[in-house]
Amino acid sequence: MRGMLCFAILVSGIYAGIYEKVEKACSMDEGESCTYLGILYQVGQGVEKSDKKAQIYYGKACKLNDAEGCSNLGDLYFLAQGTIQDFGKAKIYYKKACQLNYSEGCSNLGDLYSMNTWSEHNRTKAKGYYKKACSLGNTKACNNLKALEEEDKILIQKKAEYERLKKEQAQLKKETELLDAI
After folding, report:
1. Choosing a second label site near 10 at 20 to 30 A (CA), which of 72, 95, 114, 136?
2. 104 Cβ contact list (under 8 Å, min separation 6)
3. What is the pTM assigned to this prediction?
């Protein structure tokens, strides 16, 4: 038990030292440090967990063009952590992260556009963002892109079958009308 207490004190001391250094760097407009502070607050590592403070630090990081900070801020809005769920704001921050060539931001934007429940649902845009994320090395996005393309192939086949059946039905209707006329 005493060993665990010493370990806990050591770990909290390490985080306290890290926190002070990172906070200072963030105050000097170092975006990556602001993102790191946001992560510490979001998970409650060495500080009291606070999604609101995470949001503040991610916002500052994003303003400083730190792509991970933008994407993480988008996640807070997407998942309604410390704020109301707002897909429009999530889109803004994911898009900025993607423009900064952060693969996770592009992939998240693809996820957003592929959601059937979102008013801006757009499979073409989803595939475009997945393609960019994939080109940036995001395996999940590559798999999502492949899945959407496979779904498109199935939809094209179903549409062709529907058109064939529609023509067949029209032909049967004509034949029935001819038979009825006899």
Report:
1. 72
2. 68, 71, 97, 133, 138
3. 0.77
